């Protein structure tokens, strides 16, 4: 999820590059002021719920908009625009009834047809939605995205206030998807009025959530169906691109929250009463290029040796200041449960550091390759993965030191280039991360299946694909059987060393202790301001 900085700060605007009068921050230290002030580390990329992909735009859209369901404080989907969401016994037909009296921020009616239009538009090739793949499983979605079927044949129909959604296969993640912006409604006449400019400014966007987005400020949407429970009249969001600046603004009362996402900042602020570590459903991992472009990485023993010589506990304690959790599976903790047990615990694999066994496997791998030594390059970006340079430096040192015959080099590129290199298999080892799109392990496990667009390992494993198809097919509606399949997929990832899960990411931050109802979600919309208020 969220394929996602200059000195100082700048205001958050709907049009990147705008400016804001500094005087609007004049009363930021006033304890009686109900306005909440938060920061984002980068300007918005847009407000079109069909096309946004970065977590910061999703945060704004997720608070100024709303879907059929909304995640509660525990991350569980609850009815929002919908008053009921029910599935047929075979899990392939969903009946969704909308609340009465729903309205857009301009006072016009919000109807079931707005949902149908938005879903059709998201699947239309012309829209170029990067998250359209989330619709896969809904009748004709894949064919529409491939340009083989008309978007009007998508498996969603409206009759009055009722939606009927037809699936090609059961989708256990369906309710979770309904909380995600790509599935939010859109008003056809408004979108078509602005065309390509829709969602490029606050005034060229229509809203249906707890807030509207006006100029530089998010303000209450009086037409929101649950407006009586929205306690804060205004949320100010400001772009602060340097975390050190955000921390200083927090300490002087100009912000109610600030990320402390470097080891130095985290260590320096641990004793602050507003300090907390928020887990995220995100795994930072190493992709191994198995396309055939890197001979050494098509050797399983070489990959296994790299996994075994990776000391995840030491990486977490020495490089990440203990703020994350060493990975024991590809799927992170906090995503889903199996009979009350966290899936990551249920599917735990033996990713133990074992230098002697790693050296043995590496030597055998070199022999199979007919080589005495190899060089591997780790590619990363510093735009997106926090502490990327420190992590890569650590891996370079440890791997080179503990695996005789291995030389490790480093390559740092812009985030967009790293994504393209991953797609083109133009790399050797890549430091990357994945955040959950929905609350089910398949959002991670899909990344190791043959042909997945985000499978940067470029691997193909027949046993994996067979079990993957079973999990999303025959066993999709049986939670116990599906979980067993998913555990089996984690086992194959480990045994075949398809990739190298390093740690489950967490977010160290400072949050004003006087703010209540401000929720971080591990899945979907990252920050939820709906119930946020100052004590």
Describe this structure in words.
α15 runs antiparallel to α16. The protein is α+β, with helices and mostly antiparallel strands and 535 residues long. It contains 16 helices and 24 strands. The strands form seven sheets. Strands 12, 13, 14, 17, 18, 19 and 20 form a seven-stranded mixed sheet that branches. The chain is globular and about 70 Å long.
Provide keyphrases for this structure.
single chain; 535 residues; alpha+beta; 7-stranded mixed sheet; 5-stranded mixed sheet; 21% strand
Can you summarize this structure?
It contains 16 helices and 24 strands.
Number of strands: 24
Low-confidence stretches: 1-32
Which whole number gives the mean pLDDT?
Answer: 89
* Alpha-carbon distance between the two ends: 33 Å
Share of helix among residues? 25-40%
Strand content: 15-25%
Number of helices: 16
User: What would you report as the Rg, rounded to the nearest angstrom?
Assistant: 24 Å
Class of secondary structure makeup? alpha+beta
What's the assembly state of these chains?
single chain
Describe the biggest sheet?
7 strands, mixed
């Amino acid at each position: 999820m969220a394929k996602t900085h200059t000195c100082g700060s700048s205001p958050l605007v709907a049009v990147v590059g705008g400016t804001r009068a500094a005087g609007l921050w004049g009363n930021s230290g006033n304890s009686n002021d109900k306005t909440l002030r938060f920061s984002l580390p980068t300007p918005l990329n847009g407000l079109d719920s069909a096309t946004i992909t970065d977590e910061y735009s999703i945060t704004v859209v997720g608070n100024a908009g709303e879907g059929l369901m909304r995640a509660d404080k525990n991350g569980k989907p609850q009815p929002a625009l919908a008053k009921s969401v029910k599935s047929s016994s075979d899990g392939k037909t969903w009946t969704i009834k909308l609340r009465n009296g729903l309205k857009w921020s301009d006072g016009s009616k919000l109807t079931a047809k707005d949902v149908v239009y938005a879903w059709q538009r998201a699947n239309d090739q012309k829209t170029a939605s990067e998250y359209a793949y989330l619709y896969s499983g809904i009748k004709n979605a894949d064919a529409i995205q491939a340009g083989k079927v008309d978007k009007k044949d998508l498996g969603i129909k409206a009759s009055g206030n009722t939606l009927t959604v037809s699936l090609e296969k059961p989708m256990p993640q369906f309710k979770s998807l309904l909380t995600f912006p790509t599935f939010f409604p859109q008003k056809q006449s408004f979108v078509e009025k602005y065309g390509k400019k829709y969602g490029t400014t606050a005034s060229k966007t229509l809203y249906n959530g707890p807030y509207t987005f006006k100029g530089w400020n998010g303000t209450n949407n009086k037409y929101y169906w649950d407006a009586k429970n929205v306690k804060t009249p205004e949320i100010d969001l400001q772009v602060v691109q340097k975390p050190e600046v955000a921390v200083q603004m927090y300490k002087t009362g100009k912000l109610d929250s600030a990320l402390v996402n470097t080891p130095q900042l985290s260590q320096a602020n641990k004793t602050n009463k507003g300090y907390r570590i928020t887990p995220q459903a995100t795994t930072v991992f190493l992709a191994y290029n198995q396309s055939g472009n890197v001979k050494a990485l098509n050797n399983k023993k070489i990959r296994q040796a790299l996994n075994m010589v990776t000391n995840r506990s030491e990486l977490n304690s020495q490089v990440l200041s203990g703020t994350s959790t060493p990975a024991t599976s590809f799927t992170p903790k906090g995503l889903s449960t199996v009979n009350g047990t966290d899936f990551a615990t249920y599917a735990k694999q033996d990713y133990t550091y074992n230098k002697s066994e790693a050296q043995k496997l590496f030597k055998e791998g070199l022999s199979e390759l007919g080589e005495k030594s190899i060089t591997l390059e780790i590619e990363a970006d510093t735009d997106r993965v926090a502490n990327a340079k420190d992590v890569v430096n650590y891996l370079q040192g440890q791997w080179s030191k503990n695996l005789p015959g291995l030389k490790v080099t480093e390559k740092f590129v812009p985030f967009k280039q790293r994504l393209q290199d991953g797609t083109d298999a133009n790399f050797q080892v890549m430091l990357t991360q994945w955040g959950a799109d929905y609350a089910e392990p398949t959002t991670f496990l899909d990344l190791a299946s043959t042909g997945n667009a985000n499978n940067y390992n470029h691997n193909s494993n027949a046993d994996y694909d067979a079990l993957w198809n079973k999990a999303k097919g025959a066993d999709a509606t049986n939670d116990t059987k599906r979980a067993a399949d998913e555990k089996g997929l984690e086992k194959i990832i480990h045994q075949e060393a398809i990739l190298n899960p390093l740690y489950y990411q967490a977010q160290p931050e400072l949050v004003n202790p006087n703010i209540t109802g401000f929720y971080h979600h591990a899945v979907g919309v990252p920050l939820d301001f709906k119930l946020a208020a100052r004590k």
